[in-house]
Amino acid sequence: GQNIDQPTEMTATEGAIVQINCTYQTSGFNGLFWYQQHAGEAPTFLSYNVLDGLEEKGRFSSFLSRSKGYSYLLLKELQMKDSASYLCAVRDDTNAGKSTFGDGTTLTVKP
Amino acid sequence: DAGVTQSPTHLIKTRGQHVTLRCSPISGHKSVSWYQQVLGQGPQFIFQYYEKEERGRGNFPDRFSARQFPNYSSELNVNALLLGDSALYLCASSLVAPGGTEAFFGQGTRLTVV
Questions:
Q1: CA pair distance B108, A97, nearest whole angstrom
Q2: Coil, helix or strand for A110?
Q3: How far apart are CA B74 and CA B94, in angstroms?
């Protein structure tokens, strides 16, 4: 089966750094995505990892360890607008159009 | 450039009714996937279509069906609506499948069944 775990909620302070973890157990693997979703809006793509290691994109970085079934999203220099839900998703290895999502981590950034 | 567009944005239906949701992918994208997102949960995969053929189906009852048209737009149909079908229905398009790039989501259709 497919199982993706991430913390339900996190709180951080504006300007700080926060790490959101994701662990997965899936029958297939063809990449891991992170999406940001503001309340009432659609998910927007943040990052994609298919090989082990760190991918950096501006204030956002994502790390993957396939052997450990583990990923994290690192957000630096937090801004109030970063308050949102962050979804971890694993893409199926036989169907690129299918991803299994975690239930999301609601991040609240406080002044 | 237009992103993924879905219609309608909001919809209220009565139990037992039928609903059709529509999605237009990004120009040039041939793959469309449908997801159901219940409040407080992550999106759950319903269907994927590529080149007008069904390429994947999630764990949803036969009341859910979909199709893709020659212009790559797609419809999701749900029959005999239940209260539990109330959710945000998301359409995602991607360039190719399998092994394609990231998916781009539409703004979703918020379906409420009363």
A1: 17
A2: strand
A3: 13
Please give the pLDDT value at position A1: 60
Check if B5 contacts A (Cβ < 8 Å): no
Tokens 């997102």 -> residue: B37
| Helices and strands of chain B, counted as H and E runs | 0, 11
- Cα–Cα distances in Å, from B105 out to A74, A85, B31? 22, 15, 12
Contact assessment for residue A78 and residue A88, using Cβ atoms and an 8 Å cutoff = no
- DSSP tag of A81: G
Q: What is the mean pLDDT of chain B?
A: 91
pLDDT band at A96 (very low <50, low <70, confident <90, very high): low
Half-sphere exposure of B3 (CA within 13 A, CB side): 13
Partner-chain contact B99 A94, CB within 8 Å:
no
Average confidence score pLDDT of chain A: 92
Nearest to A87 among B42, B96, B100 (CB): B42
Query: Which residues in chain A have Cβ-Cβ distances shorter than 8 Å to B107?
Result: 41-42
